[in-house]
């Protein structure tokens, strides 16, 4: 065979291959697709022969989906995407019928994989005025910005009056609502656009409504409770564009000259990142006072800008109403006011032998700290009504999901360990979680009272007569300890009075349980009501490191005294949340 013939044969084979390629990949799928379109059209015509009463009148359009035609047995065989066993779209394929010039015209649209009919099947484009997501303050009037334009690919520019708007926004209730916009083109192709409207409460505006013209909350209000970073606070007042809040109870007991360092090193550190973003640096009253002007309500000296501070006597005095004052604690708490370079004022509901609610004491002493924070007035209130049973919650909180490890939750949240409430202090890098009991161990109905049993005041969990030994070895008699792991602890030892960050030496022990430190988060006794030991130790045996039965830090010689046991431990890394909200009245239920 000569070269010329071979060349012709090669060309012929190539032509055949190309033809087969075109047939199998293009012509056959298109031919099959056109056959399907014809079957749909014929099926729709048959439908209306049987049901002529359903033919549309006037300018109306009747739509039959491929699914309708299948279910009505007007199409006998399945329509598949060519070369597959995947059916053509039942819901997105349709035949539309419209009367034009006294005759019914059929428009068929079929979608089979990448193949689709050329007939117009897209609804008009709706463009809204304003944003697709809007925020409205509760109680304000919501005005829908409306529709800017409606344009169809076949019909061109359409009147915005053709858009049907459904609006269910209720600004009397917080929540997320939708405004729906629907438009059809001349072939009844539909377009739906949604605008999301969130009705929110902003902290400042809500606080102003509650104050009702007053400058600050007074007496014992029942509507100024607020959760912030999982800690219960009370709203004090509106300060410019922002709002000041104070913790409901003492968080810890700290020496006055160490309060600012503790606030920044410990308290601020334990706030959530979302909460920190809401904090506004502010100036706080810190003027010096004397016993003769403790009734002051105006401040004449302020700190520089700070993230966090404590209440001043002027704040407390302004909250007085008819003998009630929510800023006067049952414990003994520091105020922001010094008397001189050695003493500062504390506040309490009463002092035995004193004529008022304030007393000056040495700054070296450890008394309650109630942090004050200023937060953004435009912070969103997500939940709550301000009562103690349903405090306001801001948008700094994310609910825990089932099976979440406790170590992923936040300081201040509550955990139920087989019926016993604990509170999260912090998570450790190894996945364990430091928690503090929100109760004092008791036997039956009586508080478990313990003492050192000798003249020693050094906390030592390896010594049998020591309170540290009792806590570590006897706690299992009171509650399930299988959730807890052994951890290394540090016992700070001081020459005399404990002072934050001023320990003389430190002893290390590996234990499952210990007493809290006076500087631990949530170690103060404002909501406990019983006495208990601290692990902070003094070389001066005349000093006891404990909370008294009146919830205040204990001073004086108590060598024969007995105090209760409040434990601190570390939850194992595999402890997970099953249910609950992490609050004192609905703590997380957990399992392993």
Describe this structure as you would to a colleague.
The protein has 592 residues and is α+β, with helices and mostly antiparallel strands. It has 4 domains: 3-116, no CATH class; 125-203, Immunoglobulins (Immunoglobulin-like, Sandwich), CATH 2.60.40; 214-376, no CATH class; 399-591, no CATH class. Helix content is 15%, strand content 31%. Strands 7, 10, 11, 12, 13, 14, 15, 21, 22 and 23 form a 10-stranded mixed β-sheet that branches.
Q: What labels would you give this structure?
A:
8-stranded mixed sheet, alpha+beta, 10-stranded mixed sheet, single chain, Immunoglobulin-like, 592 residues
**Count the strands?**
38
Give the C-alpha Rg: 37 Å
Based on secondary structure, the structural category is alpha+beta
Specify the overall morphology.
Answer: elongated
* Helix percent band: 10-25%
On the 0 to 100 scale, the average pLDDT is: 91
Approximately what portion of the residues adopt beta-strand conformation? 25-35%
Largest sheet: 10 strands, mixed
Q: Work out the helix count.
A: 7
Short description:
With 592 residues, the chain is α+β, with helices and mostly antiparallel strands. The chain is built from 7 helices and 38 strands.
């Amino acid at each position: 065979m000569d070269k010329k013939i071979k060349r012709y044969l090669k060309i012929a084979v190539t032509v055949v291959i190309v033809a087969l390629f075109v047939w199998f990949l293009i012509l056959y799928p298109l031919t099959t697709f056109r056959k399907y379109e014809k079957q749909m059209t014929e099926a729709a015509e048959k439908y209306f022969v049987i049901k002529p009463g359903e033919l549309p009148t006037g300018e109306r359009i009747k739509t039959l989906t491929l699914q309708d035609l299948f279910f009505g047995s007007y199409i006998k065989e399945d329509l598949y995407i060519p070369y597959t066993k995947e059916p053509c779209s039942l819901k997105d394929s349709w035949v539309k019928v419209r009367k034009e010039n006294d005759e019914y015209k059929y428009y068929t649209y079929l979608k089979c994989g990448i193949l689709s009919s050329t007939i117009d099947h897209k609804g008009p484009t709706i463009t809204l005025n304003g944003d697709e997501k809007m925020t409205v303050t509760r109680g304000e009037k919501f005005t829908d910005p409306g529709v800017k334009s409606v344009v169809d690919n076949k019909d061109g520019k359409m009147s915005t009056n053709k858009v049907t708007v459904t609006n269910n926004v209720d600004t009397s209730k917080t929540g997320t609502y939708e405004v729906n916009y629907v438009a059809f083109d001349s072939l009844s192709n539909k377009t739906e656009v949604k605008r999301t409207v969130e009705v929110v409460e902003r902290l400042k505006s809500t606080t102003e409504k509650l104050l009702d013209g007053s400058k600050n909350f007074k007496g014992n209000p029942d509507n100024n409770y607020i959760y912030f970073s999982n800690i219960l606070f009370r709203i004090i007042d509106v300060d410019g564009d922002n709002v000041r809040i104070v913790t409901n109870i003492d968080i810890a007991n700290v020496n006055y000259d160490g309060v600012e360092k503790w606030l920044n090193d410990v308290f601020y550190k334990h706030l959530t990142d979302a909460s920190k973003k809401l904090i506004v640096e502010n100036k706080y009253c810190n003027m010096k006072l004397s016993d003769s002007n403790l009734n002051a309500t105006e401040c004449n000296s302020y700190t520089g800008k700070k993230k966090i501070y404590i209440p001043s006597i002027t704040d407390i005095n302004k909250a007085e109403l008819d003998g009630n004052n929510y800023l006067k604690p049952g414990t003994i708490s520091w105020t922001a006011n010094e008397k001189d370079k050695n003493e500062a004022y504390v506040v309490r509901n009463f002092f035995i032998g004193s004529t008022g609610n304030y007393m000056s004491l040495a700054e070296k002493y450890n008394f309650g700290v109630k942090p004050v924070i200023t937060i953004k007035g435009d912070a969103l209130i997500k939940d709550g009504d301000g009562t103690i049973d349903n405090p306001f919650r801001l948008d700094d909180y994310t609910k825990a999901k089932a099976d979440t490890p406790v170590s992923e939750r936040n300081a201040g949240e509550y955990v139920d360990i087989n019926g016993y409430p604990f509170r999260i202090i912090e998570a450790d890098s190894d996945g364990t979680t430091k928690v503090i009991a929100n109760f004092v161990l008791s036997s039956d109905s009586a508080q478990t009272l313990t003492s050192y049993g000798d003249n020693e005041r050094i906390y030592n969990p390896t010594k049998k007569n020591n309170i540290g030994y009792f806590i570590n070895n006897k706690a299992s008699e009171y509650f399930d300890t299988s959730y807890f792991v052994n951890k290394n602890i540090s016992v700070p030892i001081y020459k005399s009075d404990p002072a934050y960050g001023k320990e003389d030496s430190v002893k290390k022990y590996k234990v499952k349980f210990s007493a809290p430190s006076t500087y631990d988060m949530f170690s103060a006794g404002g909501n406990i009501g019983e006495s208990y030991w601290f692990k902070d130790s003094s070389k001066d045996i005349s000093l006891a490191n404990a909370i008294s039965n009146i919830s205040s830090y204990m001073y004086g010689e108590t060598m024969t005294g007995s105090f209760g046991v409040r434990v601190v431990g570390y939850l194992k890394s595999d402890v997970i949340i099953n249910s609950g909200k992490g609050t004192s009245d609905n703590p997380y239920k957990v399992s392993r």
